[in-house]
Amino acid sequence: MRPIRRGPSPRLNDFIDYADAKPELVSRLGPYCSFCERRVPTNLAVEHVQPKGLPAYAQLIGRWDNFLLSCVNCNATKKDKDVRLAQVLLPDRDNTFAALIYQPDGTIAPSPTARAAGLAQMVVETLALTGLDKAAADTPDQNGKQVALDRMRQRMETWLEAIYAKSAIDAHPTNQVIRHMAARLASASGFFSIWMAVFDDDADMRRRLIDTFPGTGESGCFGMTDARPVSPAPNPDALAGGGKI
Hints:
Layout: H1 22-29, E1 45-48, E2 67-70, H2 72-78, H3 96-99, E3 100-102, E4 108-110, H4 112-116, H5 120-129, H6 151-171, H7 176-189, H8 192-198, H9 203-212
Antiparallel strand pairs: 1-2, 3-4
């Protein structure tokens, strides 16, 4: 999950219709699912962190600080699950990038930082919250080629795209146009964390990626000079339960 900061509410009071928050959320965070990181140009939903379907959180239906963005898959899996802020890691208040490891086979696992902090089980529960722990689906076409219809296979595809971009940069490391285009390709595909993992040894590209994805640099979860994860998260808006990692 890409750490983000949505910033102060654009309104003095709560939203009467929470859907009205979508343009400002997309402007500040980009057209990406806040959980799986996919780019979703259309049908991106305003997600309630603490679900609007539970009576205990009815007062938060129009609350800016309770909004994220979600794709249909993550939204449907999360649904009305009771989200205890102290028991899961969330991209608007924790350094979720520091907590997770994205791997070439599409799987996501607790990072050494999370394990050292005793948060491995919290990572497991966080992935289960929106189904990011689901296995790849078997969806071959008539020629037997797997079609990436699920989030895990889409992560695998994106990893290969990022590797291809990295090979071009490694062949021409000082070519600024290639670097710029790689960052633009990342923006178009989404999956910030995968691109960051592939370019782990390239500080310039890490900084470009952080700057390319809206709301990421503003989170304060990455160093200004080395673009490495800052842990615990600064949680600049002092959101409840934040700064666990």
